[in-house]
Amino acid sequence: MFLKWKLIELDEVDSTNEYAKRIAVNSPEGTVIVAKRQTAGKGRRGRSWKSPEGGLWLSVILKPPRLDPRLVFVGALAVVDTLEDFGIPSGIKWPNDVWVGGRKIAGILTEGKEGEYAILGIGLNVNNPAPEGVDNATSMIYHTGKELPLNLVREKLLFHLGKWYEVYLDRPTVLMDKVRERTFILGKIVKVEEEGRFIIGRAIDVLDDGSLILEVGGELKRILYGDVSLRI
Ligand code: ATP
Ligand code: BTN
């Protein structure tokens, strides 16, 4: 059974993830905070996420049995499927971005408190122009050639989120099979920043635990999600 979503719609908020964290303990699983604009949208490690009107900025409160870094892939796959519904082919840039034609269209930010809640935050550029000052960003409108009803995009995204969340809970290896299929960096040379150090290697595989395998100078190296930034 898919989750029943409970929507909280806001015109403006600092960050839907922050709002979600403030109410998470007292809110049921499936509560969704969606805002027209965020004044302090954020990415990983305090980076800023530009969130003007026209994009889809939302955070879902979940109560999974345990915190697991693979939750980020529930968001990434849901975005990929949503884009496909609108005829836009996309791929996952491990671990937390979705790209279309060499540009970033969406980002996922998961946060949580063990034993209490998980927050799955998704930012998807829809009708907003690709933000200025951000390298390599794109937006759905550039690929459809026309504005899209934001509510319809949200509906599709929530449908796919519910679907992948179930797979994540019941059959995580099936989720990871799909992630491998959709991860477009496999086979490519990438540069990973890990605690200030740079590693250049070929992306070989994503393991069932969500980590990335790089081939570096003939040796295999396992990169864990969470503390890395990856460039193609
Ligand atoms: P990457 O820069 O490749 O995404 P990352 O995943 O480690 O690496 P994050 O912190 O997850 O970086 O993402 C934040 C980055 O996303 C910002 O540094 C900025 O470059 C970019 N960004 C901010 N707003 C948007 C947006 N609306 N659309 C696309 N990209 C954005
Ligand atoms: C990334 O850095 O790629 C992740 C960006 C995540 C942005 C979304 S927008 C909705 C939610 N609220 C936030 O402040 N961040 C996430």
Structural class designation:
alpha+beta
Shape: globular
Please tell me the total number of domains: 2
Strand content: 25-35%
Query: CATH topology of the largest domain, which one?
Result: BirA Bifunctional Protein, domain 2
* Proportion of residues in helical segments: 25-40%
Distance between the terminal alpha carbons, to the nearest Å?
38 Å
Biggest pleated sheet: 7 strands, mixed
CATH class of the largest domain: Alpha Beta
Radius of gyration: 17 Å
Annotation field: number of helices: 5
The chain-level mean pLDDT equals 95
Q: Architecture of the largest domain, CATH level 2?
A: 2-Layer Sandwich
Low-confidence stretches: none
Report the order of strands and helices. Answer: EHEEHEEEEHHHEEEEE
Small-molecule binders here are: adenosine-5'-triphosphate, biotin
Strand order of the largest sheet: 1-2-3-7-6-5-4
What's the name of the CATH homologous superfamily of the largest domain? Bira Bifunctional Protein, Domain 2
Query: In total, how many beta strands?
Result: 12
Protein described:
- The chain is an alpha+beta fold and 232 residues long.
- The chain has two domains: 6-182, Bira Bifunctional Protein, Domain 2 (BirA Bifunctional Protein, domain 2, 2-Layer Sandwich); 189-230, Roll (SH3 type barrels), CATH 2.30.30.
- 26% of the residues lie in helices and 34% in strands.
- It is built from five helices and twelve strands.
- It has helices at residues 16-23, 71-85, 140-144, 150-170, 172-182, and strands at 6-13, 31-38, 56-62, 91-93, 97-100, 103-113, 117-124, 189-194, 197-206, 212-216, 219-223, 228-231.
- Strands 1-2-3-7-6-5-4 form a seven-stranded mixed β-sheet, sandwiched between helices. A five-stranded antiparallel β-sheet has the order 11-10-9-8-12.
- Helix 2 (71-85) packs across helix 4.
- The mean pLDDT is 95.
- Bound molecules: adenosine-5'-triphosphate and biotin.
- Biotin binds at residues 15-17, 38, 41-44, 47, 49, 51, 57-59, 96-97, 107-109, 121-123.
- Biotin is lined by residues 15-17, 38, 41-44, 47, 49, 51, 57-59, 96-97, 107-109, 121-123.
